[in-house]
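Weekly sync, protein design subgroup
Attendees: M.S., D.O., the rotation student, P.L. (late)

Item 1: inverse folding check
M.S. brought a backbone from last month's batch and wanted to see whether the design step gives back something sensible before we order anything. D.O. pointed out we never logged the input encoding, so this time it goes straight into the notes. Structure tokens as presented (302 positions):
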């Protein structure tokens, strides 16, 4: 029997995993919207409208609960928003130019980069299990990217890889910042700061969207705000390695949408590469749960 604390912790992880699963569905829909806008709206302009509509979603919350703007951080919000915007633009480029399933599968490298970042910046132990996960994760990415195969490596997939690394940095910052700021504060400040940051590059590529584009951008902004809230809440409730596996639901979700909307069928290498990355991070998550239960059992026997 495990202790009550461990059972409570497992329930918390389950709830956080549900948040991540819902966010995965929204992320797949987001990718489909980006593809629909591909070639019509520049990625920087998409990033600007995403932040504007996302901010519009939470403005009523800020108006009724202005105390959520009280934060224990200042400059960290700016750096986090800049990194998040850069990651989003990388993803937008990837979704517009590469097969959706391939780009989404490469994005699963975020937990791998997260392990490396936690070791470098947070001082977390880098075990043999994590080393195995990192090595196999990159092997999985190589299967998808296929360097040396006929034709050059698709630059869009490299953008997806870069976006994954940037997103890992954002999640590391979230883990630290959630110690002082709650979910609403983190989401509100991210959107408030991102709007002016995104406006600067968007001005250089500006083209006023038509009604269809405007509605798609609005939909994307709403989904993005909800997605950010869900993921921020999930990462404030549980360790990233424990909830990361649920994020892999994005691949079947986006594969179905790509097939229905665009006639894209995910290739064999996509599923194999994504499966390798998934198993590598799953091994770390499973090992963490076993270690936690073993520690609880040892404490009970003392």
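Designed sequence read out in the meeting:
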């Amino acid at each position: 029997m495990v202790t009550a604390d461990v059972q409570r912790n497992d329930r918390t992880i389950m709830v956080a995993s549900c948040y991540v699963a819902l966010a995965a569905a929204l992320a797949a829909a987001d990718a489909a919207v980006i593809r629909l806008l591909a070639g019509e709206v520049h990625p920087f302009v998409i990033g600007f409208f995403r932040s504007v509509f996302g901010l519009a979603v939470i403005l009523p919350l800020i108006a009724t609960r202005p105390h959520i703007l009280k934060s224990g951080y200042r400059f960290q919000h700016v750096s986090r928003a800049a990194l998040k915007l850069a990651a989003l633009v990388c993803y937008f480029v990837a979704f517009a130019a590469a097969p959706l399933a391939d780009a989404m599968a490469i994005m699963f490298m975020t937990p791998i980069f997260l392990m490396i970042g936690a070791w470098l910046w947070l001082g977390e132990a880098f075990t043999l299990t994590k080393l195995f996960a990192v090595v196999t994760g990159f092997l999985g990415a190589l299967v998808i990217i296929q360097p040396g195969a006929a034709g050059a490596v698709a630059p869009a997939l490299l953008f997806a890889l870069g976006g994954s690394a940037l997103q890992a940095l954002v999640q590391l910052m979230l883990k630290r910042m959630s110690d002082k700021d709650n979910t609403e504060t983190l989401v509100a400040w991210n959107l408030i700061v991102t709007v002016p940051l995104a406006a600067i590059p968007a001005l250089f590529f500006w083209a006023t969207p038509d009604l269809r584009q405007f509605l798609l951008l609005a939909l994307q902004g709403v989904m993005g705000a909800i997605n950010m809230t869900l993921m921020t809440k999930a990462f404030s409730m549980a360790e990233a390695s424990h909830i990361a596996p649920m994020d892999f639901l994005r691949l079947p979700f986006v594969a179905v949408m790509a097939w229905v909307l665009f006639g894209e069928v995910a290739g064999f290498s996509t599923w194999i590469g994504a499966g390798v990355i998934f198993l590598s991070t799953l091994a770390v998550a499973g090992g963490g749960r076993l270690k936690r239960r073993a520690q609880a059992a040892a404490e009970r026997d003392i």
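Discussion: Residues 4-37 form the longest helix (34 residues). Confidence is low (pLDDT under 50) at residues 289-302.
Action: P.L. to compare against the previous round before Friday.
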